[in-house]
Amino acid sequence: MARPPAPGSVIVPDWHESAEGKEYLACILRKNCRRVFGLLERPVLPPPVAIDTASYKIFVSGKSGVGKTALVAKLAGLEVPVAHHETTGIQTTVVFWPAKLQASDRVVMFRFEFWDCGESALKKFDHMLPTCKEKTDAFLFLFSFTDRASFEDLPGQLARVAGEAPGIVRMVIGSKFDQYMQTDVPERDLTAFRQAWKLPLLRVKSVPGRRLADGRTLDGRAGLADIAHVLNGLAEQLWYQDQVAAGLLPNTSENTPADPYSQPSGDPRQRAAPMS
Amino acid sequence: MGEEGTKGTVHLLCLAASSGVPLFCRSSRGGAPARQQLPFSVIGSLNGVHMFGQNLEVQLSSARTEDTTVVWKSFHDSITLIVLSSEEGTSELRLERLLQMVFGAMVLLVGLEELTNIRNVERLKKELRASYRLIDSFLGDSELIGDLTQCVDCVVPPEGTLLQEALSGFAEAAATAFGSLVVSGRVVAATESWWRLGTPEAVLLPWLVGSLPPQAARDYPVYLPHGSPTVPHRLLTLTLLPGLELCLLCGPRPPLSQLDPQLLDRWWQPVLDPLRACVPLGPRALPAGFPLHMDILGLLLLHLELKRCLFTVEPSADQEPSPEHRRRLLRAFYTLVTASHFPPEPGSPEEKVEDAAQRSQVPRACYLVSGPEGPGTGWRLVALQSGPRRLLLLSAQSPTHALRGLATHTLHALTPLL
Question: FUZ/MON1/HPS1 second Longin domain spans which residues (chain B) (predicted)?
């Protein structure tokens, strides 16, 4: 696998907080709530700013109960289930995220399709794991700061799930980081893991998001600010991987990646489709 | 009959029949899920009295106290379900059908094998948690009525033929015969084979889809309580538009990943406008602008042979009573006419089968005035049976002598729809 790009080298990190970024974010919000899109729909921008969409499939993996479904719900701006129960079968969630590329100053609409599957369904039904892994662009490995076993299970997960696809983006996310008083995973273990695996490692909190004035509806903008680092991190890894795959970047290079669209050939993997 | 603001409680208990171990308890209060639980001693006694009867070869099926109705039912000598309801206007018929739906939901999600051959109670308990959401939706105030009528809740889309064609084509492309479009738990369109699904899965599948939290797509293992209780099938759902889901029932193929956005766009973008028109249809059931008499506040139309129904309390939504109250009135009236006036519905073995002599004298229509006494007050309810169709209307002002005319006229207008 290509060495992961340095954080902030591909995607402008805090662009979503700039005035321009906020304008783009408006198309994934409605009345300050996150907009839910059907599979036939895409975010609509006014015609002069029509941008390309890059779609990716991401398989979320991790021990039962670490919060895979809760993480995906958080990324999509949906209500996080209160009581835990095992996810039945596979469920997918689509998240749109506009981000600005460092190299070309162009904005790209990322379309992430998260694939989440309950642990016992994976064991019980043979077809589930291959379906989840098929043509996936990234693996997101989850562990929980409150569950030591889920952290220790990571090397096993990495081998079992992503072992046959070594060239594909792998990211590790620690959930329930806000419950640091009960943390079972001390910092030194994280450092050791990072050194051993050289994988990007992010942390997310599991506290419920801020609500709007009515006290019930989730505040879409506040929710996006909470998870922007995860979406930007994913966008960065995936965009970088595409360019390496397209031969636009040497595999080992640590240079600032070029924008594949500056090349006349475009993206040979034909990920990006022009919007409407 | 139900008044505004009644706060009845429903408790549902599920026990392993042989050991008496409680598998789960679910409750609702005033139509919303509640955490309140019955003391263990009460659960034990309720199960004990049922078991006591069984040992003497006496089947205890129901009991009534001053304010509560209790119904027991055993399934395959392995699972005992007990329901207690203090909701006003509740009846044995409603509770018996509720228990059938609950058991159906349990089979749907964990399979009959796990329920009849309990090897590990703790594991079964854990697996059954997947069915809580669906079961809770039966206990609370639902906008649907299929749990009671055992008919599939449907809506009539404005351009049904176009959607039907797209659906058949798509199902064929996905190599399955079973496909449907579901908007908030109600079927908009379905393939021939989907309509031939047996009871209870025909009712349970759309209900399940309507009760799950929103997801772009799912690959959901289901056991069909009637058609395939031990071998799981795959229910694939694809959210075309928020609230509108395309459902496919299939075997090992196709993988979910094959139903990608490109394939969906090819089949469904051309009918995007008719699809959009379906999204707000859920509670309305009828196409916008369908002419209904202004006195009608709610209606339930059943086709007893097709096992489909249309149920809405949207007309004149600005008037009293509230939608919840209207639904309660129509549900209670349906229970009354089904339990005591109209002949039993075909294919419902649990109800008494009347002999031919009685059958010749069955009523074709009945009405009821509910609420405060006095001229010009109270809600009017009328039911009419004609061939396979049965229509129930809720009206506010109509004088009682005009009810039958109103019902006949409305049934005539609705006949082409169902």
Answer: 176-269
> From CA B235, how far away is CA B178, in angstroms rounded?
10
* A128 chain-B contacts, CB cut-off 8 A: 219
> CB A39 to CB B239 under 8 A?
yes
Count of residues for chain B?
Answer: 418
B319-372 confidence digits (pLDDT tens): 888 999 999 999 999 999 998 888 766 655 444 444 444 555 677 888 888 877
The distance of A60 to chain B (nearest Cα, Å) reads 14
Enter the ipTM: 0.88
Confidence tier at A266 by pLDDT (50, 70, 90)? very low
Between A261 and B26, residue with greater pLDDT: B26
Spatial separation of the C-alpha atoms in residues A197 and A155, rounded to whole Å: 9
DSSP alpha helix (H) spans, chain A: 19-25, 68-76, 119-124, 128-133, 148-152, 154-162, 187-197, 220-245
Domains of chain B and CATH, by start: 10-140 (3.30.450.60), 157-284 (3.30.450.30), 296-341+363-415 (3.30.450)
Tokens standing for A55?
A: 């779609």
Q: Would you call A216 an interface residue with chain B, using a CB distance cutoff of 8 Å?
A: no
Q: Could you say which of B215, B252, B257 has the minimum Cβ distance to residue A93?
A: B215
What is the per-residue pLDDT for B319?
86
Condensed to tens digits (0 to 9), the pLDDT of residues B247-261 reads 999 999 899 999 988
Helix (H) or strand (E) holding B278: helix B272-278
Domains, chain A, ranges and CATH?
15-274 (3.40.50.300)
Q: Which amino acid is at A248?
A: L
Among residues B128, B176, B181, which one has the least CA distance to residue B152?
Answer: B181
Task: Record the tokens describing residue B220, joined without a space.
Answer: 């959901």
The CA-based dihedral angle spanning residues B271, B311, B313, B244, taken in that order and rounded to the nearest 10 degrees: -30
Q: How do residues A135-152 score in pLDDT, each as one tens digit?
A: 999 999 999 988 899 999
Longest Cα pair distance anywhere in chain B, in angstroms? 65
Tell me B341's DSSP state. I
Phi, psi of A115, deg, nearest 5: -110, 120
Length of chain A in terms of residues written: 276
Give the nearest chain A residue to B238 (CA atoms).
A39
Q: A64 at the B interface (CB within 8 A)?
A: no
Q: Distance, in angstroms, between B3 CA and closest chain A CA? A: 29
Contacts of B132 in chain A (CB under 8 A): 85
In chain B, which residue's Cα lies nearest the Cα of A39? B240
CA dihedral A85, A90, A91, A93 (to 10 degrees): 120
Residues contacting A244, CB < 8 A, separation 6+: A2, A251
* CB–CB contacts below 8 A, A to B: 80
